[in-house]
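Just scan my protein:

. . .
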Amino acid sequence: MIFVAAGILVIASVACFYRVIVGPTAPDRLVAVDAISLFLALTMVLLAYQYRLAPLYDVALVYAVLQFADILIVAKYIERGELHL
């Protein structure tokens, strides 16, 4: 059952990757990249549960937090054209 859910998340990631390549605007591409990162973190959590790998939960959490910060930085760059941190 968990492998089916992980497979669905991978298929959703491929669909989002298509939007990254074809997306008409930069914000569309940014949202697709954010969705891919969310799907990847959820896949890590599912696999950690399946294989009883507790450290993988921590990896998924750190990855999600760093990806969130990265998306905010890129969104700010897209909006203003430059970074003033």
